[in-house]
Design a protein that fits this description.
The structure is a single chain. This protein has 2 domains: 2-45; 51-149, Immunoglobulin-like (Sandwich). A 3-stranded antiparallel beta sheet has the order 1-2-5. Strands 4-3-6 form a 3-stranded antiparallel beta sheet, with no helix packed on it. Helix content is 30%, strand content 32%. The chain has 2 helices and 6 strands; from the N terminus they run ααββββββ. It has helices at 2-12, 15-49, and strands at 51-57, 69-75, 81-92, 104-107, 116-121, 138-149. It is α+β, with helices and mostly antiparallel strands and 151 residues long.
């Protein structure tokens, strides 16, 4: 019985050292992984911040009465854009409720670095707000954008 106790004690002597090494390896791998993810996210965010996406009601100068909403994409980054998904919010002037019916627009247009592109689109209001469809009484704004870059 004593030998069994002694053998068990001897075999467990090195365990705390092995466990400490394994825990340290996990910590180092976790820190390195976190830093890589942070760097890639920052790089993407920096590129996205160099791209302007705006919207304006313009049924005469750049667009037509049939497609009166001008979406401008201005690429200030050093990468080529392959497409942009933009969400547009339409509100009554002085109000915050989004009354658009289908707010997502996908602009499938290649925009090289330092270039701009305007796409004219239709818009529609939620049927409950259709009586407010007078452009001078509406505000148009971009809520979010998702940029796809060419590889």
């Amino acid at each position: 019985m004593n030998t069994l106790k002694k053998d068990l004690k001897d075999s467990l002597k090195g365990m705390p050292k092995i466990i400490s090494i394994i825990v340290l390896i996990f910590i180092v791998v976790g820190v390195i992984t976190g830093l890589v993810i942070w760097y890639l996210d920052k790089k993407t965010t920096d590129e996205n911040n160099k791209i302007f996406v705006g919207v304006k009601y313009d049924d005469v100068e750049k667009c037509s009465p049939e497609y009166p909403l001008a979406i401008l994409v201005s690429n200030g980054s050093n990468k080529t854009i392959s497409s942009v998904d933009v969400t547009i919010k339409i509100t009554k002037k002085g109000y915050s409720t989004d009354i658009s019916f289908s707010p997502l627009y996908i602009l499938d247009r290649i925009v090289p670095p330092e270039k701009s592109y305007i796409q004219c689109v239709k818009y529609s209001l939620d049927p409950a707000y259709e009586q407010y469809n007078k452009p001078e009484g509406l505000d148009f704004s971009t809520v979010s954008k998702y940029i796809n870059f060419q590889e």
